[in-house]
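Before relying on records like the one below, remember that each one covers exactly one chain. Contacts with other chains, cofactors or solvent are not represented anywhere in the record.
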Amino acid sequence: MPDTDAEAPIIGATFVVRMIAPDSQDTKIYTFPADIPHKSRLFVIGLTGKDWAGPRVEPVAWDVELHASDGTLVCRQVSYLWEKPDR
């Protein structure tokens, strides 16, 4: 994800992960609460257990957003296939 270069921590943030798995065309949405430390550049999140098919399965397309506690979009990263328009 892009560096937000925040001067202060982001307390009460939320990651929103949208993804399409290989076994379905439906978009699955997951949210993860997080407190982002001062000038943090890396945050590891993942899907495991019943939410994911296995360690070698990769999503077809994905969209990850970080929202501040007030809902403001802080940053966003998407896969190529997420942006690709329907044809």
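Residues 10-83 form one domain.
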